[in-house]
Structure formats: structure tokens, C-alpha cells
Amino acid sequence: MGVAIWWIRRDLRLTDNQPLAAALGHADEVIPVFVLDPALLASPFVGSKRIAFLLEGLRSLDSDLRALGSRLILRRGDPWTELAALRDESGAEAIFAEEDISPYARRRDARVAKDLSLQLVCGLTVHPVGAVLKSDGEPYTVFTPFSRAWKALPLLNAGEVLSRPSRISSPPGLASQPIPKQPTLSSDVPFSPGEAEALRRLRAFVEGDTSPVYGYAEGRNRLDLAGTSGLSPYLRFGMVSARQVHLAALSAIDAAANGEARKGAETWLNELIWREFYIAILYHFPRVRGSSFREAYDKIEWANDEDAFLAWCEGRTGYPVVDAAMRQLAQTGWMHNRARMIVASFLVKDLLIDWRWGERWFMQHLVDGDPAANNGGWQWTAGTGTDAAPYFRIFNPVLQGQKYDPQGANVRRWLPELDHVPDEFVHHPWTMSVEEQAKAGCKIGQDYALPIVDHAWARTRALAAYDQAKRAHAAL
DNA sequence: TGAAATGTTGGGGCG
DNA sequence: ACGCCCCAACATTTC
User: Fold this and answer.
1) A197, A221, A337, A436: which one is catalytic?
2) Nearest alpha carbon to residue A320 among A415, A236, A424
3) What structural domains does chain A harbor?
4) In this structure, is the CB of residue A93 within 7 Å of any atom belonging to strand B?
5) Contact between residue A228 and residue A2 where contact means Cβ atoms under 8 Å apart
6) What are phi and psi of A75, to 5 degrees?
7) Is A357 a catalytic site residue?
8) Lookup: nucleotide whose C1' is closest to A403 CA
9) Rounded CA separation A76/A37 (Å)
10) CA at A424, C1' at C6: how many angstroms apart?
11) Is A268 designated active site?
12) Which of A72, A93, A148, A186 is the most buried (most CB within 10 A)?
């Protein structure tokens, strides 16, 4: 039956892998190949923590493949060139890959498909990208009706997970370059790559009557508790399939012991649907990658103060809830979703800095950085996106801190200089008297920054800037 | 998946 | 006893 190529991109798993299953169904011998694309490595939207996670993930996948009698072939270079060479070396008739939807991925795949026999298979999402449409055939731009239609669609393969192959035969003698040792994954990054770890985390989150998924409705918002699944980096690289996670959410909903537990599992399912919503938005409206979905807001006159941006990046804005989250991001490559909304609101509304600056910084540092979800999240906060927060919804960083980190435990974890600041001041330490600052061992302006902007003033400025943009657009 | 500003109500202090 | 004021608590509107 011949040879097929399984072109691995963001599907680093053996269980429930549709392109792999398609390749195995098509040929006796399958070549698992990953092409390390220098164009991607050089992108300003890529950072070393995510690359390190990917490289470790490839090592883990290689080890899993070897256990099945195969191995990972790694090639560095332009995908079209490398795949054409591999086809010529091996005589492979077809290439199978999981469909990807970012503008760059689509251009790359179109170029490959023009000359090589490339078959793109669903798998990035539960439902095929582009299959969730209104009755008039147009894409949804509002989440709630999207989610309703999404839930009504039948599951591919009747919801059966594709089993892990027991053996993969590959042609011998194909050259593979070594998986690069650099960049290395810092021990500060709290994710260890690989399919086994992804499945372990999934089980820990959903299995049993008292699993965290049942407290998710409340727990997901708390910055000081581990209420989230921590699966985002694994979904980002397909170390677990979206469908497997979806089925786990459905089972948890079924097994919920009471209304509150059920609500937790349903809320979690909703987050998975937000992921698919933003993937669909980027697929149907690729222009959102560079510009606001709502064009009026591309007329905003941003302040774009470089020093303020640097203070935000480095976590020295003087607002503890913001600074703690930004230092956690720089150090570990991860940030709680609630914190992402808070720091994004602060950058866009309080500092009046273009959301694209924040989008790029997040992509450079997040281990789970995904173009669709990240863009969607930023445009949501900036009020420029589909079904976005209204422009006047501006987070107060003090109130958000008090609400979601009531004792300041998370703030103190990342800002040790606030260790001895009493709870009542921990989210607004600049209101301490000089004596209180001395007692807490935290002199404001010296041990910890004075707020770089007054929130009440900044709120008014943001409202005026957005209002001005709307007027400018309406006048056209 | 906000927060601030403004409006309303009602208990209690007080002359 | 009564009217008046204050203001906390809650509701509604506005940004």
C-alpha cells in the first residue's frame, strides 16, 4: 500500500490523532515528520519558552514513537522544500496533516498543497473549522448563538476517540536532524510537555466526585487558588485532542452530583467553546490579526508611551495585581485567565497603549500562546472585537485584586517586597502612611513602585479616547 | 467575563 | 409626637 507522511504541526499526540489515523489507513508505512520552520522561529510572535516547550514535546513524542517501532524525523528548513525532499527520498504518495488556521499556516499549507498531495484533516477543534455557520451560511460573530449551534452539531466519528496505534511501521534509513537542545525549558515553567502528562492532568481535573471541575464556576476566577485545568499548553500543541477534552467535559456534566457541580462542568465546557469560537473568528476574518474587528476603534489615538509599556512588561506599574501577574508571566510563561483580563484592561484602558503591543508581548512569553485565542482575548478586552466587552467596561485593578485575591496571597507570591504589607493595604500599598510603610518594610517609591497612573484619571481619559474614535469613524 | 454615578428608601438621632 | 436631616443600603442608570 505504500508510504505516507504524517506531517506533525500542533498535534503532538498518538491517541485520537486523525491525520495519523488517516495516514495509517492509507499506507503500510508512515513517516512522522516535524519541520522546524525558521520563518516561524524568527517571528516576533514567538518566544523561547514556548519553543522550549515544543522541543521538549517533540522529544517526548519521539520517545513514544520509538516504543511503537517508529521514530520522529525532524527536518529544519522551509516546509515545502523539506517535504518535497522527504517525498523524493521515501517515495511517499501522500501527506496527512491536521488543519491549522492561522494566516501563516494557511499560506504555508496552500503552497505545499499546490505541488504535493496534502490532505488536511480536522482535529485542531472538535467541530471542523468553518462548519459552525448561521442558516444563511455566514459565520457567527456573537458567542452565544455560536455556542448553541456548536452544541447542536453531531460529533465526528460518533464521538469515539481514535485509539492509540499499537505499532507504527516506518521506512528505515531516513535521515533526521537532532532535536535542538536550545532553548531549554526553564524549571520555572510549571508544565512538563508530553501526551502522558496532558492525559494525567485531564484525569486529575475531571475524574471523581470531588474533582476541581465541579468547583470551576467559582474557582476559575480565584487568582490565589488552583481552580483551572492547566491544560492550555497541551491543547496548544495538541498533546491532548480537543475532542478528548470535550468528551471529558460532557462526562463530567453527566456525572455531576448537584446543580452547583453541574454548573462548574458546564462553565468549563463553555471555555472550550470560546476556544473554538476564536479559532473560527480568525479563520473567517483573518484581518483581525492586524486590525480591530470593529473598524471604528482603529481610529483610537493611543498614548503608546514606551516607558509605561516597559513598566507593564516588567511588572512595576505600582498596582500589585497587575505586577504580580506580569512577573509570573515573564518568569513562568503562564498567567491565570482572570489575570490576563486584568493586565490587558490595564494596558489598554489605563495606559492607553495599543492592544497589539500587549498581544505581541503575550505571544512572546506564553507557553500556551495561540494566535486565535490570544487575539480574541485582547480584542475582547480592548472592546474592539466580535462580541467584545463594551468599551466602557474598565477593570479597577484594586477592586479586582480584592475580589479575586482577597488576602493578597498571589500578590505576595510574586512580589515578595509586599510580604509584610497588611491585607487591607496589599492591593493599594501607596495608601499606607509613612509609619505603616516602615513597619511593613516596604517604602513606596523605593521597595515597590508608586502607581504609574491614577486609575480614576486614566478611566476618564480612556472613555474620552474611545468616544473620540467613534465620532471620527461616524463622521466618515 | 465592571465600576462609578445617581436615585430611592427607610431607620434612627435630634430639636 | 412630629418633621427634618443624615446616611447606610440597595437599586438603577450611565459610562
Assistant:
1) A337
2) A415
3) 3-121 (3.40.50.620), 195-284 (1.25.40.80), 295-468 (1.10.579.10)
4) no
5) no
6) -130, 140
7) no
8) B2
9) 6
10) 28
11) no
12) A72
* Contact indicator for A429, A418 with CB cutoff of 8 Å: yes
Residues facing residue A448 across a β-bridge: A444
Instruction: Tell me the C-alpha distance between A300 and A353, whole Å.
Output: 10
- In this structure, is the CB of residue A392 within 7 Å of any atom belonging to strand C? yes
Burial label, A263 (beta-carbon count in 10 A; 0-12, 13-18, 19+): middle
Q: Which nucleotides of B are covered by protein (CB under 7 A)?
A: 1-5
Average confidence (pLDDT) over A91-101 = 97
Does residue A463 reach within 7 angstroms of strand C, measured from its CB? yes
Strand partners, A52: none
Residue A274: active-site member:
yes
* Residue A32 near residue A73, CB atoms below 8 Å: yes
Q: Measuring CA to CA, how many Å separate A419 from each of A45, A141, A311, A318, A448?
A: 34, 45, 21, 15, 11
Asked if A277 and A131 count as a contact pair (C-beta separation under 8 A), the reply is no
Using one digit for the tens of pLDDT, what is the confidence trace for A270-316? 999 999 999 999 999 999 999 999 999 999 999 999 999 999 999 99
Q: Given A93, A207, A271, A436, which residue is catalytic?
A: A271
Q: Which residues contact A385 (CB under 8 A, 6 or more apart)?
A: A281, A288, A292, A293, A294, A376, A378, A379
Q: What is the pLDDT of residue A158?
A: 77
* Residue A414 is a catalytic residue: no
Spatial CA neighbour of A292 closest among A372, A369, A393, A382? A382
Cα A276 from Cα A269, distance rounded (Å):
11
Between CA A108 and C1' C14 the distance (Å) reads 48
Tell me whether residue A80 is one of the annotated catalytic residues.
Answer: no
Q: Is the CB of A319 under 7 A from strand B?
A: no
Distance A394 CA to C14 C1' (A): 13
Q: Does residue A295 carry a catalytic annotation? A: no
| Whole-number pLDDT of residue A458 | 97
pTM: 0.97
Tell me the C-alpha distance between A350 and A430, whole Å: 17
Dihedral angle computed from the Cα positions of residues A254, A259, A264 and A268, in that order, rounded to the nearest 10 degrees? 50
Question: At residue A102, what is the residue type?
Answer: S
